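forwarding from the other thread:

> can someone predict this with iron/sulfur cluster?

sure thing
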Amino acid sequence: MGATPTPPAEGCRPRALPLLSPIVPSIVNSYGLNYRGREATPACYHEPAMPPLSVYIHVPFCQRKCHYCDFNTYAGIDHLIPPYVEALLSELRNWAGLARGHQVTTVFLGGGTPSLLSGAQMQAVLDACRASFSLVPDPEITIEANPGTVAPGKLEQYRNAGVNRISFGAQSFDPGELAWLGRIHSEAQVGEAVAMARQAGFRRLNLDLICGLPGQSTARWEANLQQALALRPEHLSLYALSVEEGTPLAGWVASGRTPEPDPDVAADHYLAADTILSTAGFHNYEISNWAQPGEQCRHNLTYWENRPYLGLGAGAHGCFGGFRYHNILLPQEYIKRLTSNEDPSHSERPALAGMAGRVAAASPVAGINRVEPAEDLLDTLTLGLRLARGIAFGDFKARHQVDLRGRYGAVLAETQALGLLRAESERISLTVQGRLLANEVFVRFMNADTTGGPVTVAGPAGAQAD
Ligand SMILES: C[S@@+](CC[C@H](N)C(=O)[O-])C[C@H]1O[C@@H](n2cnc3c(N)ncnc32)[C@H](O)[C@@H]1O
Ligand code: SF4
């Protein structure tokens, strides 16, 4: 087959275009949008005065680094977990004033490995969330967990602290594949972790799996999926293996020890997954995510719907008040900035004014930018197209004052002719082929904007200059 896949991930991060065309550079970062230190960050611009908020909290610790992973997370610094939690509590307190009036609908602790936190530390973080934010009565509170790091007592403490959704990085059920990936757990431990979570009262559970491993047959991949389904998760996130710079995997590929992952194999795995999972009652509601009815990850929908969210913790990204920002990357620096009396808004830089200054006073930002209208419009478009339901013309017009059919008529016609996009009377969405080659579609919208002159939309309500 001619399509080229890629990966993304749930929750974490922020992060991801799953299936990239061979001829299109990776324009959109290939991971979820919340959990990576340097992910593509969606914008948030035209919002009601007090829109609902999601909160992402990054936990940058792992027992061991997996061979493929370049997330902002570190092994061998567990002694920093207690001061890091203190720093998080401080950052959470800093946000109380600015977030006042916003309803917080979801909290997502991603990593790294949030399941390295003790029950008491998790309780402290979620108590601080409740003290600083106005949480809706039924917030979705998710943690990412490595199956090799959980125990029954700790999971019960997490439940008691308010965590109501858990996402396990399973990756594979094949012992050879798990070892090759550098995972710390066995396939049996994934099943044990799921059983412990159910026993502790977790009704909502996700499993992450990675496909397209070099040499992985479709039959082997299908067996992984069947073993995952046997554990009865409500949600599955499937990512094609990507080779990230600076990882051991990248070194193996460069030295010829490991072949490059074959995008056509990953595309075959993606299509096999779609068949198996739809038969099992799952809906592929987002390019890399499948859920049973009503079990979509509400937190990640915030990113794909291009709505505002706070990012707390080292390297976390946030989007608030017409600005997007990212925090300093290193946990040591992050701790220092939040536990010293130093002004978190960077004393060596000129003071930031207005909303940018208020955000920088709450979080130790390393960068903050106003979200420009044209960028916001493209984010709504490219993130929204990741969803199976796509984008409704009416919603888009109401949000950006732009008629999609008028502005992008040529792109819509071309991508439909290529079989990548489906246009109905009310909306557009990607076809299956379009999901495999999503960047092909996105790049055409981006090029239309760069060649078609500036997009004229209304300015941001209330955003102030830096
Ligand atoms: C933060 S991790 C999940 C939780 C936990 N850290 C773990 O791994 O068990 C997020 C997910 O990103 C995916 N991921 C990370 N790096 C990847 C890569 N290079 N290629 C494909 N998927 C990747 C993995 O499926 C992983 O479970
Ligand atoms: S456990 Fe998760 S975050 Fe940590 S190195 Fe492995 S994939 Fe990355």
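The radius of gyration is 21 Å. thats all i got for now
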